[in-house]
Amino acid sequence: MKDYVEDKRLREQCVLEEMIRLYCRKQHPGETMPGRACCPDCQDLLEYAKSRSQKCPFMEEKTFCSNCKVHCYKPEMRQRIRQVMAFSGPRMLLYHPGMAIWHLVCRLQNKRKR
Ligand SMILES: [Zn+2]
Predict the structure, then answer these.
(1) CB 64 within 8 A of CB 58
(2) How far is the centre of ligand 1, averaged over its atoms, from the C-alpha of 67 (Å)?
(3) Distance 22 CA to ligand 1 centre (A)
(4) CA distances from 16 to 82, 105, 113 (A)
(5) 102-113: per-residue pLDDT in tens?
(6) What's the 74 CA to ligand 1 centre distance in angstroms?
């Protein structure tokens, strides 16, 4: 069970990273720091999002886009991650179909539970 949770955590962080990178590439072109995937602001957001995911006590039962995730963000970061999700969410299907499908499956599972 623990492995499953850790795997889920890693995947979540991986999706977060892809989504933030994609957002930054399109929204902040030319601001990328040398040797980094995104600009300093997006890097901050990514670090923050990853640290939240790392500490999340609900990893086992939650799905990727469950609201609990957004609730533990502080308001400023919540605002920013929402923008990223709104922008990158639909585009993930284009760039990373595998991840997008997994994300979709999570959402469906979540709906069924409710
Ligand atoms: Zn950026």
Answers:
(1) no
(2) 24
(3) 9
(4) 12, 16, 24
(5) 767 766 766 666
(6) 19
